[in-house]
Structure formats: C-alpha cells, structure tokens
Amino acid sequence: MRYSDQICMRYQHAIEIIGKRWTGLILKVLIDGPLRFNELAERLQVVSDRMLSERLKELEAVGVIERRVLPETPVRVEYRLTEKGRALSPVIEAIEAWSQSWCDSSTCEHAEHAQAVAEVA
C-alpha cells in the first residue's frame, strides 16, 4: 500500500466519524462541557432520543466522547469530549465558520435542521 493511500484511508475514516447525521451538532454542544443525556436531548430537540443514544454510543466506541457514571444518588451519567474529541474543536469551529459564510436555511436539507444549527450556535 502506498503512503498516499494510507492518508486517504485515514482521512475518509475521520470524515465518516464526524460526517454522520447529527454528529456534528452533538460535538458542537459538547465542546462547551459535559452534559447529561437529558440536557443533550433538550438542546438538540430535533434529534430523537434513539438517534442521540445511537450517535453517543458510536462516538464513545471510537474514543471521541466518554460516558461517565457519577457516583451519586440517583446515579447520574454525563457525556464529555475526550482529548481526541477536544482535538476536533478547531475543525468544528472551522465548519461552523464555513457554514455561516456559505450556507443558508434554503440550502439545508430540512428546515428543522437549520433551526437546530442556529439554536446550538
């Protein structure tokens, strides 16, 4: 395998991680700090609980977020970015800046998606 092929494979893998629907918004919200599931769901109202749970599990599996069980009564679970996830902050911010310059609500696939982006930003 050529060196350039390996770079392309890594790049594609990274795009697949952050490019899934709603993943960018989840990461954007978690940049500000850890949140419990219900807090995430409240901020990302257009994302179903099932989809949010699925995306969180995927991000945890690749080491981008960490699920922490806090030893309290009642038990609390929070999600936070790992070091690997925090390293995505400049990428997420660059995508946000690009979207502000080049995207408008008429180019979004769904109007509620545009509204969710506006509310998170």
Walk me through this protein's architecture.
With 121 residues, the protein is mainly alpha-helical. The protein has a single domain (3-120), classed as Winged helix-like DNA-binding domain superfamily/Winged helix DNA-binding domain (Arc Repressor Mutant, subunit A). Helices cover 60% and strands 12% of the residues. It has seven helices and three strands, in the order ααβααββααα. It has helices spanning 3-18, 23-30, 37-43, 49-61, 83-86, 89-102, 111-120; strands spanning 35-36, 65-70, 76-81. A three-stranded antiparallel sheet has the order 1-3-2. A hairpin with a 5-residue loop joins strand 2 (65-70) and strand 3. It is globular. The N and C termini lie far apart (41 Å).
Compile the SSE list and pairings.
Blueprint: H1 3-18, H2 23-30, E1 35-36, H3 37-43, H4 49-61, E2 65-70, E3 76-81, H5 83-86, H6 89-102, H7 111-120
Antiparallel strand pairs: 1-3, 2-3
- Compute the number of strand runs: 3
Structural classification: mainly alpha
* Structural shape: globular
Which consecutive residue ranges, at least 5 long each, have pLDDT under 50? none
Q: What would CATH call the class?
A: Mainly Alpha
SSE pattern, N- to C-terminal: HHEHHEEHHH
- Under CATH, the topology can be stated as Arc Repressor Mutant, subunit A
From the N-terminal CA to the C-terminal CA, the straight-line distance is: 41 Å
Largest sheet: 3 strands, antiparallel
Architecture per CATH nomenclature, i.e. the level-2 architecture: Orthogonal Bundle
Helix content: 55-70%
The percent range for strand residues is 5-15%
Average pLDDT over all residues? 88
Radius of gyration: 16 Å
- CATH superfamily grouping: Winged helix-like DNA-binding domain superfamily/Winged helix DNA-binding domain
Count of all domains = 1
What's the helix count?
A: 7
Biggest sheet strand order reads 1-3-2
